[in-house]
Amino acid sequence: MFRFYDVTGGRILIDGQDIRDVTQTSLRAAIGMVPQDTVLFNDTIRYNIRYGRWDATDAEVEEAARLAQIDKFIRLAPKGYETEVGERGLKLSGGEKQRVAIARTILKAPPILVLDEATSALDSHTERDIQDALDRVARNRTTLVIAHRLSTIVGADEILVLDKGVIVERGAHNQLLAHGGLYASMWNRQREAQMAREILEGTGEDAAAPNRNPPSVEGDGSVQNPNTTPEAEQAFAAAEAE
Question: For residues 201 and 196, what is the distance between their CA atoms, to the nearest angstrom?
Answer without folding.
Answer: 9
